[in-house]
Specification:
Elements: H1 4-14, H2 18-22, E1 30-31, E2 37-41, H3 46-51, H4 58-69, E3 78-81, H5 95-112, E4 116-120, H6 122-128, H7 134-137, E5 141-143, E6 153-157, H8 160-164, H9 167-177, H10 180-186
Parallel strand pairs: 2-3, 2-4, 4-6
Antiparallel strand pairs: 1-3, 5-6
The structure holds uracil (URA).
Length: about 190
Amino acid sequence: MKSLEEINKYWHKANKCEIKKTATRPVFGDGNSKSKIIFIGEAPGKEEDLSGKPFVGRSGKFLSEMLSLIKLKREDVYITNTVKYRPPNNRDPKPEEIKECMNWLFEEINFINPELIVFLGRHSLNIFFPKEKISESHGKLLHKNLEGVNTKNFLALYHPAAALYNVGMKETLIKDFKKIPKILEKL
Ligand code: URA
């Protein structure tokens, strides 16, 4: 079996995204590779592009705060993104960019082999559940047998960046986030 480093090296080399050319560096997943839970965000922002680590900017700080509410540190969990390169000016990743990074993400997920996949925002949700709306499916445990992915349990959450500027959404995100320990216990 390939190591995580080998997986990242292989897919970074093979990737043909336009955003690979404009990004400073790839931002690989980070954290505990033996974690039972993996968080999948959208795409690296400015600070992630500079540091090479996912979720180190404002949304990352908020994510760490929410993890501490459920007695976890970011080093305890595994955090990655739908696309591994920063889109220029933080625009949304394009469908073809998400597709180009998809097998990379699937191989990464199967390496970690978590019991629960948590989507941070609609982009990662829609890779696995193209018809689901984040406004309707957030906070609900979803199940699906997907070809190429071993994990069968999924939880969608609002993206921390969206919730930072919307009080109602922030409350909902925190409420949904606090469901994680019970969900993990039952799996
Ligand atoms: N937002 C994301 O979706 N991912 C990051 O790594 C940082 C901000």
